[in-house]
Amino acid sequence: MPMNFNSVWAAMEDCQRLGLTKSIGVSNFSCKKLADILSFANIPPAVNEVELNPIWKQEKLSKFCKENGILLTAYAPLGAKGTIWGSNKVLECQVLNEIAKEKGKTVAQSFNKERMKSNLDIFDWSLSKDELEKINEIPQSRLCR
């Protein structure tokens, strides 16, 4: 049975109007599903949370969200190592590892004390046009099933 987005979205709008939530949004919505909601919504989605990373940039969706004032936020930005539904392709990406090594950095950051100190040292470098082009040329594929 297909989801009735109209009634669900209307209820979410009521929650926002009643002050029960500051914003309302969606997760894993395609351009088509977002367009459907925008066709009847009084309050548009504030955010769409999707899988988004250098291996899966979702450029069409990103453009659509930007044009419609919907923030795009990422889950699994570094992949999903150790889960049954994800992979470690971002951390293993040769292009990203080569660039990180050239910068004396790592592809990923972590939450341990030593790593947090190094995380604060992020403004002493920038990516060159060539490096940005290399990242943009990374073959695209979903990491999460």
UniProtKB/TrEMBL annotation:
GO terms for molecular function: oxidoreductase activity. Pfam families: Aldo_ket_red. Transmembrane segments: none annotated. Residues 7-109 form the NADP-dependent oxidoreductase domain. It comes from the Eukaryota. This is Aldo/keto reductase. The lineage of its organism: Eukaryota, Viridiplantae, Streptophyta, Embryophyta, Tracheophyta. It comes from Corchorus olitorius.
